[in-house]
Each structure stands twice: as structure tokens, then as C-alpha cells.
Specification:
Elements: H1 2-16, E1 19-25, E2 32-38, E3 45-51, E4 63-66, E5 68-73, E6 81-89, E7 97-103, E8 112-115, E9 130-135, E10 138-139, H2 142-157, E11 162-166, E12 169-170, H3 179-187, H4 189-192, E13 196-200, H5 207-216, E14 232-236, E15 239-243, H6 256-273, E16 280-284, H7 308-323, E17 328-331, E18 337-344, E19 347-348, E20 353-355, E21 358-360, E22 366-370, E23 391-395, E24 399-405, E25 410-417, E26 422-430
Parallel strand pairs: 9-11, 10-12, 11-13, 15-16, 16-17, 17-22, 21-26
Antiparallel strand pairs: 1-2, 2-6, 3-4, 3-7, 5-6, 7-8, 9-24, 14-15, 18-19, 18-22, 18-23, 20-21, 24-25, 25-26
The structure holds 2-acetamido-2-deoxy-beta-D-glucopyranose (5 copies).
One 2-acetamido-2-deoxy-beta-D-glucopyranose binds at residues 311, 346, 388-389.
Length: 437
């Protein structure tokens, strides 16, 4: 029997052991979804237990949940079946941490850890500080390793709540019959298995109607997204966060632009009704509305991202953001970091007070580009030699951002350079009003 088990482990262990483990919040509070991959159709089980809660005697017994498994043919030219497992742990408590393993009951992963704090939708509300890692355009190559190393180190201190990855994964999830996507998901596992890893799609996910994105990630459900994970929102602390899909505006055959727009307008309307209790309204997506890499400069002529594409998105979305009093729009796609001031109709809008690293009472949305986690193309979108006059700070360093919503009045955004291994920029946004008109 021992011999038999050893043989199974040796022969098929690599197909049975869970890999590519990632966590995500769901549409309900107090829940964490764990997803992982095996290459044989094994059972789907999660073992977990609360730790560090003062009123639960330690160590507490392991608890088990069962989940679901689906077969996904990730191959583009040949059939490559992987089994994507997902299970949801419910009844989490904000003040606890949870350790967990995933597996089939025999072949378990290592033990990972996550915080029991999730978005919340029913009283008593938790309005305490929220701190999120924000990044975009992250691939498997050496460029992305700097950022991974830095976030893994920071992640050990557990001083952030979740990661928001705003489009462009792996370069690309479907490449080499899915092997590139698999490799990237293994690379980020130290982060994605320990923190809710929340995603939205970028242009690199477009292949075959976003199949790899939609199959590999499971984000909060709403009636409009119908389980596609393309757009959703959540409430956390003093803020409402909207994760939306700008790719719909780049494919003229895609009528889902209207599905999302209707949802967005309704979501913003509801967020504005809750504005007394959650005053911050933050939108994130892949494509920029404002950035400075200038497509008119011959050197960068091929780059329409901050030119015609940005102008098109301004037409579609700027008025929606402005009329609804969106405080901050975080974008990626362009491979650099650029922090802009408050902008409306391509003009800087003065706040009640503007300093080098502070805006008190902005009168229009603020835009930040953060698309330099490290893609395989390297520094192909260097910052413009002639940034627009609303640009406040820019850098080509690989790295990531951190968004901290302290309370009803103070929001802090900072950028970390994986090259400097340090913070390179920050800004305070101090709120004195919720709407601009
Ligand atoms: C692409 O996927 C979306 C959402 O899953 C769906 O609404 C749309 O009909 C699909 N488009 C095509 C061309 O299949
Ligand atoms: C919603 O998703 C389900 C399951 O994928 C699908 O069968 C159904 O057609 C979708 N509904 C709409 C309105 O797209
Ligand atoms: C949405 O897509 C349709 C094509 O399906 C296009 O005719 C329409 O102009 C788009 N609407 C917006 C608001 O982008
Ligand atoms: C936007 O304003 C900048 C000045 O900051 C100017 O250089 C640029 O041409 C303007 N873009 C458009 C499309 O008007
Ligand atoms: C909000 O947070 C900022 C930054 O920590 C702090 O300076 C300010 O006093 C806080 N305001 C309130 C009302 O707690």
C-alpha cells in the first residue's frame, strides 16, 4: 500500500497537486473564493481554520468545504485540459485571519493565510482604513520579477487588504496553448494565494472573446456581468470601488458596451445615494482617458494610446465620471507611471488648494496611470519628453501603486519603484465635497 501510494505520488503527483492558487472576494460579504488548477479531475476541497481571533481557542479545528471543478481546454491549437477548482469559504470575521490549504483530501497544497476582512454590505459597517495594492500590465518575463519580489516582501508584513490588477496578464494568458498563463499564475501565487486578487480585463485578454480571462478568474457576480468577471463593484471602508472594462469600446462588434454602461450608471447612482457614509468613489480600468505619451511626437507615432484612443474614451466616459463626482480614475495600459492633477475637458481644474503632493477639494476627477508592473515588451512606452500641463509626476520604473483610503476626508496614493525598492511618489487627496456641480 505504501509502495502503491509512493508510486502514485511519483507518477502523477504533478498532475494531482494543486497549483496556481488564487483568492478573490465574492459578491457577498464575509466570503473568500479560492481557485486552483490540477491536471487530473480530482475532488475539490478546502481545509481552513481561523487564527488570531481572541475569542476562539487556538489552535481551532480544521473546517472543510467542498467546491466545484470545471474542465477548461486552454489549448489554442492542441487540446490541453486543465481542471479549474473553486470553493468559497463563508462566515469570515473581520478581526480574524484564516489559514487554509486546497486539494482533494489527499494531495494538499501548502498552507496559506488571508485576512477575514472583506467588502461589506450590511450593518454594522466597517468604515476603517482600506489599503489596496494597484498594478497593471504584468507579465512572466524578467521585467516583472522586480515587482513580484517587492510585493512578496511587502506582502509578508500584511499591511494591505487586497490586490487590484487592472488588466494585461502574463503576455498572454492563452499563449503557447495556455502555458504562459499557467506560468504567470504560478509566479504570482505567493501573492494571489495570500490576498484577494481582484482583476479586470485589458487588451491582451481579448483573444477568443476573453475566454482565458473569463474561465480563469471568478470575480463578483452581478446580473449585468452574468458571471463573466468583466466588470463589478464593491464597497469597502469609506469607499466605493468600480472595476470596469474599457475593452468594450475597442471592438465595434461588441454590443456589451451598453450592458456595462447601463450597469455603470445605475451603480454610480446608487453609490451617490450612499455618499454620506461612503464618500469616496474610485473607478479603475485598463485604458487611459488622460496620459502624456504623445502620439504626435514622431518617435512615438505608433502610440495612439494617449492620443486618439484616450480622446475616444473621454467622449464615452468623461462626462459620466464628472457628473457623478468620481474622485479618482486609475488606469494602466501605457507602460509607465504618471500622476495627473484634476482634469476636465483636457484642462487642469484648480482645487481649493493644490500643492506638489496634495490636492485639497479637487473639482474634477484625478487621473493616475499605473501600467508598469513589468511587461515583456520592456520600456516601450517611455514617459513623454513633453508631458501635458496637467501631469504632476512621471517615471518609467517598474513598480506598483498603493491606494489608502484613510477616512471620509483623506485618501493617499503612493507609487513604489521596484528598481529603487522604495516609494518614488505620493499624493494626498483631501475631500471637501462629493460632487463637482
Ligand atoms: C463575448 O462574450 C460576451 C460576454 O461573455 C457575450 O455577451 C458576447 O455575446 C460574446 N461575443 C461574441 C462575439 O461571442
Ligand atoms: C448568462 O450566462 C449563462 C451561463 O453562462 C448563459 O447560459 C446565459 O445565456 C447568459 N445570459 C445572458 C443574458 O447573456
Ligand atoms: C456600442 O457598440 C455598438 C456596436 O455594437 C456601437 O454602434 C455603439 O456606438 C457603441 N456605443 C457606445 C456608447 O460606445
Ligand atoms: C490638451 O491640452 C494640451 C495642453 O495641456 C494640448 O497640448 C493638447 O493638444 C490638448 N489636446 C487636445 C486633444 O485638445
Ligand atoms: C483622516 O486621516 C488623516 C490621515 O491619517 C488624518 O490626518 C485626519 O485627522 C483623519 N480625519 C479624521 C476625521 O479622523
Amino acid at each position: 500500500m505504501i509502495f502503491f501510494t509512493v508510486m502514485i505520488v511519483l507518477v502523477s503527483g504533478k498532475y494531482l497537486f494543486p497549483e496556481q492558487i488564487r483568492l478573490a472576494w465574492t459578491e457577498n460579504e464575509g466570503e473568500m473564493r479560492a481557485s486552483w488548477v490540477t491536471y487530473l479531475p480530482t475532488y475539490t476541497r478546502i481545509a481552513y481554520r481561523p487564527i488570531l481571533c481572541s475569542d476562539i481557542p487556538q489552535p481551532s479545528a480544521w473546517l472543510y468545504v467542498e467546491g466545484d471543478r470545471k474542465a477548461f481546454n486552454e489549448g489554442q491549437t492542441v487540446e490541453v485540459i486543465q481542471y479549474i477548482h473553486t470553493g468559497v469559504i463563508t462566515g469570515l470575521r473581520t478581526e480574524c485571519y484564516y489559514e487554509y490549504q486546497v486539494g482533494d483530501g489527499l494531495f494538499w497544497s501548502e498552507t496559506y493565510l488571508f485576512s477575514g476582512r472583506t467588502p461589506d454590505y450590511s450593518p454594522p459597517y466597517d468604515y476603517s482604513k482600506v489599503e489596496l495594492v494597484v498594478l497593471g500590465d504584468w507579465g512572466t518575463g524578467p521585467n516583472g520579477q522586480y515587482t513580484r519580489h517587492l510585493i512578496s516582501q511587502h506582502g509578508k508584513i500584511r499591511n494591505f487588504d487586497a490586490v487590484l490588477h487592472i488588466g494585461d496578464f502574463a503576455y498572454d494568458l492563452h499563449d503557447e496553448n495556455g502555458a504562459v498563463g499557467d506560468e504567470w499564475l504560478r509566479i504570482v501565487e505567493p501573492i494571489s494565494a495570500n490576498y484577494a486578487y481582484m482583476t479586470l480585463p485589458g487588451n491582451h485578454e481579448g483573444h477568443n472573446n476573453f475566454t482565458h480571462y473569463k474561465e480563469r478568474f471568478t470575480m463578483p457576480y452581478n446580473e449585468a456581468n452574468n458571471g463573466t468577471s468583466l466588470f463589478y463593484s464593491f464597497d469597502m471602508g469609506p469607499a466605493h470601488f468600480i472595476m470596469m472594462d474599457t475593452e468594450v469600446y475597442f471592438d465595434n462588434s461588441d454590443a456589451s458596451n451598453l450592458t456595462q454602461l447601463n450597469w455603470l450608471l445605475q451603480d454610480l447612482d446608487q453609490a451617490n445615494h450612499n455618499r454620506n457614509t461612503r464618500p469616496w468613489l474610485i473607478v479603475l480600468s485598463h485604458h487611459p482617458l488622460y496620459c502624456s505619451v504623445n502620439w504626435r511626437i514622431p518617435l512615438l507615432k505608433g502610440n495612439g494610446d494617449c492620443g486618439e484612443d484616450a480622446l475616444m474614451l473621454q467622449q464615452k466616459l468623461e462626462e459620466v465620471f464628472y457628473q457623478n463626482g468620481v474622485d479618482l480614475y486609475v488606469q494602466a495600459h501605457v507602460h509607465n507611471y504618471e500622476r495627473d492633477g484634476a482634469i476636465y475637458k483636457n484642462q487642469t481644474v484648480n482645487s481649493e488648494f493644490d500643492g506638489t503632493n496634495i490636492h485639497v477639494g479637487p473639482k474634477a476627477p484625478i487621473y493616475i496611470t499605473n501600467g508598469n508592473a513589468g511587461n515583456y515588451e520592456g520600456h516601450n512606452d517611455p514617459t513623454s519628453p513633453t508631458p501635458q500641463d496637467w501631469a504632476q509626476y512621471w517615471s518609467n520604473d517598474y513598480g506598483y501603486g498603493r491606494l489608502t483610503v484613510f477616512n471620509n476626508t483623506h485618501l493617499y496614493y503612493e507609487q513604489y519603484s521596484a528598481i529603487e525598492v522604495d516609494q518614488i511618489d505620493y499624493v494626498w487627496i483631501v475631500k471637501t465635497q462629493n460632487r463637482y456641480n
